[in-house]
Design a protein that fits this description.
The protein is built from six helices and three strands; from the N terminus they run H-H-E-H-H-E-E-H-H. With 146 residues, the protein is mainly alpha-helical. The chain has a single domain, classed as Orthogonal Bundle (Arc Repressor Mutant, subunit A), CATH 1.10.10.10. It has a three-stranded antiparallel beta sheet. The longest helix has 25 residues, at 5-29.
């Protein structure tokens, strides 16, 4: 069977849209916007980080990441501290309240996404993840050479 690249792209797009809708529904049910959830999740799993690094990892513009950090700081979920290596930079870290909130929220979100992916076996998830990583790396490499 010969499947054209455009067909693969369309199937991937539709699957992404469906999964994205579930993820947004899950995050919004936690009374958070996606950028706030993303910041808190990154800090939970990666630890304290400079504001600009958080913005890059979440693909947020400078003003957007600053506004999000301001919101989270006003809710006492994060604090900004001076960077030990760069006087111009601020490092963001979770507060105790922030950690408690995102641990619970991430657990709920994880369960929601687990139920969405219940249609795939563990082996299928491993295979799909490997194939998507391979595809993504190839696509990135081909952008640089085009």
């Amino acid at each position: 069977m010969n499947i054209e690249g455009v067909h693969v792209w369309l199937v991937l797009w539709k699957a992404y849209d469906a999964l994205h809708a579930h993820a947004m529904e899950s995050i919004e049910s936690l009374d958070m916007c996606v950028s706030d959830f993303g910041i808190l999740e990154l800090l939970l799993h990666k630890g304290p980080a400079p504001i600009n690094v958080l913005g890059q990892k979440l693909s947020l513009a400078s003003g957007s990441i600053t506004a999000a950090i301001d919101r989270l700081e006003a809710r006492k979920l994060v604090v900004r501290t001076p960077s030990p290596t760069d006087r111009r930079a601020k490092v963001v870290e979770l507060t105790r309240e922030g950690r408690k909130l995102i641990e619970k929220a991430f657990g709920t979100h994880s369960q929601h996404m687990e139920s969405v992916l219940a249609g795939l076996t563990k082996a299928e998830r491993v295979e799909l993840t490997a194939l998507l990583k391979k595809l993504g790396k190839f696509a990135v490499a081909s952008l640089r050479t085009a």
